[in-house]
Specification:
- By secondary structure, the chain is an alpha+beta fold.
- It is built from 10 helices and 12 strands.
- The protein folds into 3 domains: about 10-150, Aminopeptidase (3-Layer(aba) Sandwich); about 160-265; about 270-310.
- The chain has helices spanning about 20-25, 55-75, 95-100, 135-140, 160-170, 185-200, 205-215, 215-225, 235-245, 250-265, and strands at about 10-15, 40-45, 80-85, 105, 115, 115-120, 125-130, 225-230, 230-235, 270-280, 285-295, 300-310.
- A 5-stranded mixed β-sheet has the order 1-2-3-7-4, with helices on one face.
- The protein is globular.
- It starts with 9 loop residues before the first strand and ends with a strand.
């Protein structure tokens, strides 16, 4: 990652997991994951030895800081509130960031991203430096109104350990519609992983399978995945699709409501919405109406009522 000398800047979205940063902001698992786009990570900053000039590093960082907010808004359509970078203390001190008035928050845990998720053991903790772009950066990053941050889509979350363990339990009472022969993954595990992927913003069977493939060994254990050759394995895209198309949707909905009651956002207000179903007539020719009660914050549907009127 970034060192204490620099010249080539590459800014990407904020790093997925960074405990000292999230504690400084005040983020929890309910709000952090959907707001990473409000942070830019300086992934590389390099000045070659033959090009050292007094104050050149802090000068470059200052120039970047002056214009990145406007460029970010123009390019991505939403604001940028914080810059971050990671310095390997085995090689660098982070002097250029200190000279540019960046704040050092502490060290990462040292786990690195791998093709199987995250490394099983800590490798090399990095120093975390941040540069707030506004005086009230923390208040902006924790603002409760998701739309005011100009982010599109619904808020997403990142599951913690207890949430991972609880998801499969919600589906434990659902009868497995598959034949016993050839089952490698228990139905609650498959449904729990599919639900977890959806909660974290994935859509479609391929997206769910890719999310599952990125889980580390500890996360797979929490979901109750099958263990083969001393490693936990996740269900494939075919298995996820096969289970979801076989299970009755209403059963899934009731199971997810149990999880949402324990872990979902608490709604301060409810909205009542009614729809008349076009060309939907019952056996007597009456038109069908649906009345729903939906939570403002969680977007969860608390109740639905179907009724019919005379044609």
């Amino acid at each position: 990652m970034a060192g204490s000398v620099g010249g080539t800047d590459q800014h990407v979205r904020g790093r997925l997991k960074c405990g000292v940063r999230d504690r400084w902001i005040g983020w929890d698992f309910r709000s952090q994951y959907g707001r990473l786009n409000l942070i830019a990570n300086n992934s590389r900053f390099l000045i070659l030895p033959d090009w050292h000039r007094p104050n050149v590093g802090s000068r470059v960082l200052s120039l970047v800081e002056r214009r990145i907010t406007d460029d970010w808004q123009a390019r991505f359509g939403h604001p940028l509130f914080l810059l971050e970078t990671f310095v390997d203390p085995r090689r660098f001190y982070g002097g250029v960031y200190r000279a540019a008035n960046w704040m050092e928050l502490g060290l990462t845990q040292g786990y690195r991203r791998t093709h199987q998720g995250y490394s099983d053991t800590a490798d090399a903790p990095k120093r975390v430096f941040i540069r707030p772009l506004y005086h009230d950066t923390r208040a902006r990053l924790t603002h409760p109104d998701y739309q005011q941050l100009q982010l599109t889509g619904d808020p997403k979350i990142m599951l913690n350990a207890e949430q991972m363990r609880s998801l499969p339990l919600c589906f434990s009472d659902i009868k497995d519609p598959r034949r016993p022969q050839g089952r490698r993954h228990r139905l609650p595990v498959v449904l729990g992983i599919a639900a977890g992927a959806t909660l974290c913003g994935m859509s479609g069977y391929k997206g769910m399978a890719n999310w599952a493939g990125g889980l580390g060994q500890q996360a797979r254990e929490r979901f109750g995945c099958r263990r083969e050759n001393k490693r936990y394995v996740v269900p494939s895209e075919f298995v996820i699709r096969d289970c979801l198309v076989r299970v009755e949707p209403g059963t899934l909905d009731r199971a997810l409501n149990l999880w949402n009651q324990a872990w979902g956002l608490q709604d301060s207000a409810l909205a009542i919405d009614g729809k008349t179903m076009k060309n939907a007539l019952d056996e007597t020719g009456c038109q069908t109406h649906i009345l729903s009660v939906v939570g403002h914050e969680s977007k969860a549907c608390y109740a639905q009522k179907k009724s019919a009127s005379y044609p």
